[in-house]
Amino acid sequence: xxFFGVSGMYYSGxxxxxxxxxxxEDSNLFSAMVSKRLKELLDIDVIxxxxxxxxxxxxxxxxFPAKLxxxxxxxxxxxxxxALSYLIDMSVPTIVFTGTFQESTRETILAKDIVDYVIxxxxxxxxxxxxxxxxFLTNHQHHVLIVDDSPTARxxxxxxxxxxxxxxxxxxSGAAALELLKKHPDIGLVITDYNMPDIDGFELTxxxxxxxxxxxxxxxxxxxxxxxxxxxxxxxxxxxxxxLRPFVNEEFYCRVNQNLDTxxxxxxxxxxxxxxx
Length: 277
What we know:
By secondary structure, the chain is an alpha/beta fold. It has ten helices and twelve strands. The protein has helices at 28-42, 52-60, 82-89, 103-110, 125-138, 151-163, 174-183, 201-211, 229-236, 249-276, and strands spanning 2-4, 10-12, 21-24, 46-49, 68-71, 94-98, 116-119, 143-147, 167-171, 187-193, 218-223, 241-244. It has a five-stranded parallel β-sheet with strand order 4-3-5-6-7, sandwiched between helices. Strands 9-8-10-11-12 form a five-stranded parallel β-sheet, sandwiched between helices. Strands 1-2 form a two-stranded antiparallel ribbon. The model has no long low-confidence stretch (mean pLDDT 93).
């Protein structure tokens, strides 16, 4: 199957129909729209739950666990967001699909470690939801290396990336990162801090680029420094992107996605050219 997302995602691979997805949505209109679109684009049949009781029954009495849930913030029987808390407690990765959204709402749902959220505010909302579903179900194909001498920073990024279903490795130094790249040729993205004791982020980026071209992996530099010239130095060293800490969750995930989307397109184009040759 092939899938083109609203934000530029391209997926070409095996069908996703084997995944069990629960849709907790009391609106007949939106549940019908989402069910139809996921079937058309991804060949996925969703299990629709109209209220909190339906949701609990579907999660707890299934022959095999749900891979993903799509849930409104409020459901009949769970008017205060209990459905989201329940899904997280049951370890079901969840995408929020909601029409009511404010800054306080954002902070509340992000605190629950959801996968993503999509707002029902445009004609593209259902397609954006389908893309978010496709990303989660296929992100395991991407291997991301985190390089940072801070155990806390490594743990935070690892947790965040695993929430999105990426495979991850981590290194506490530039030297360790170079060894991991040799052992894991499938690593497609390196996220590296600037300030490290043995090899700083610039030198690590230069060494990586000396061995791996942009068609093999992407590099994102990160730093908590206020020095705005760091981004220019990372890019000149061969990096593809740069972000300042602390990250905004949505921006971080978007930048990771964009870099991996670009890598996928480069590799797909390269494969087509090789076939023609």
